[in-house]
Write a structure and sequence with these properties.
Elements (H helix, E strand, L loop, with lengths): L7 H34 L3 E4 L9 E8 L2 E9 L29 E10 L2 E9 L4 E9 L5 E6 L6 E6 L11
Antiparallel strand pairs: 1-2, 2-3, 3-4, 4-5, 5-6, 6-7, 7-8
Length: 173
């Protein structure tokens, strides 16, 4: 007959408790990363600069650019200049880049997901004046995208609020 040692039962309880604790921690980590992934993906897609379709001037397609998030001009209300030609990046500080068409121009760059529906470390380029600003983006509880452009610290900046389009928007060419 095999003799059981007195420590066998406490050791089994010890291992079961630790196994369950590890399982609980692993499940928690997996669910947190799944929730973060779901929040991260909510930023992707098409955004317009105004709720009122009559006041919209542009639309931006937000998507992954490698490990970061970027956004390009997808639609322009007035894509042509006064001479009937597609508008170009004429205010760019670099003369070599002034021939780039505005349609398809990347205006959001370098955003990384931080936490709580916040993306930071990005930049926003304003083709109207050729200036680039440090920027953050945050999804509001209502599902709108708030983009803050600033110089130096976020306190000195401006927040734009973009919404999802309510009508079909054709990509500019």
């Amino acid at each position: 007959m095999i003799k059981q040692h007195s420590y066998t039962r406490p050791m089994q309880v010890y291992f079961i408790r630790h196994f369950l604790l590890c399982l609980l921690i692993l499940t928690s980590l997996i669910s947190q990363s799944a929730l973060a992934g779901a929040t991260t993906n909510k930023i992707h897609g098409l955004w317009v600069d105004n709720k009122d379709p009559n006041r919209q001037k542009f639309a931006v397609m937000v998507e992954d650019c490698g490990s970061k998030v970027c956004g390009s001009l997808y639609w322009l209300k007035k894509p042509l200049s006064s001479n009937g030609q597609p508008k170009h990046d004429k205010h760019n500080p670099s003369e070599a880049l002034r021939d780039r068409p505005l349609c398809g121009l990347q205006i959001l760059t370098g955003f990384q997901y931080a936490k709580d529906a916040l993306w930071n470390d990005g930049e926003i380029y304003n083709p109207d004046d050729g200036l680039t600003f440090s920027s953050t983006m945050k999804l509001s509880p209502e599902g709108n995208l708030k983009i803050r452009g600033y110089v130096g610290i976020s306190l000195f900046g401006k927040t734009l609020e973009w919404v999802r389009p309510t009508e079909e928007i054709a990509r500019c060419k």
